[in-house]
Amino acid sequence: xxxxxxxxxxxxxxxxxxxxxxxxxxxxxxxxxxxxxxxxxxxxxxxxxxxxxxxxxxxxxxxxxxxxxxxxxxxxxxxxxxxxxxxxxxxxxxxxxxxxxxxxxxxxxxxxxxxxxxxxxxxxxxxxxxxxxxxxxxxxxxxxxxxxxxxxxxxxxxxxxxxxxxxxxxxxxxxxxxxxxxxxxxxxxxxxxxxxxxxxxxxxxxxxxxxxxxxxxxxxxxxxxxxxxxxxxxxxxxxxxxxxxxxxxxxxxxxxxxxxxxxxxxxxxxxxxxxx
Length: 276
Known about the structure:
disordered N terminus; 3-stranded antiparallel β-sheet; 276 residues; 2 domains; Jelly Rolls
């Protein structure tokens, strides 16, 4: 099933949607959907933008993306294959009062966590085995597996994927605009980018764009761009031990090593040398 921008097509009367993505690159357009997304990364790695935050994802991770959170997967081109198993559902998929039943009340904390997206840090092997059963499971057993996954997720340690989410659903026009901005950033981050350029991508004046972007992400565009570049730099520091810090800075889009060190320290509370 192809995920369309901002809409998840669903079968008539179906409350739970199972999707397999096995492609070279994951769907790399900014999108949002009403359904909560539970995903297991079977293969692949890259960058995941959720709400206001930039995260890295890698093989073997479980990810939860809440209802109507704008997000985009940017697969690393070095990944030979991107393979993800996903369940989509809403809090009302099985009836408005289903998750309010006394027997299921402990699951309410899952829905609170999902509002900003999160990444479980424990019970990963147990969840992995459940995700891998979905392909051959009947619709009833998929529903049972969902409840088992939720049970693990409310007991798991976790890290949030974002800290701010715009509280209104994007219109298609807004979605197109923000998607163009994100796509431009993800493809051009290693080059010099000016506010005039990105405002032109958004088809807005520079001042109007700055206010527009800040309102929807709770940070300036330059903050967002720098955080994205720093995440790319961290990935290089981890994977390319033979690269100098100056090389990492340049590849990540910084043309000034002093600026790179300053931004890195502001974002990560430490220097690139300390991190390396």
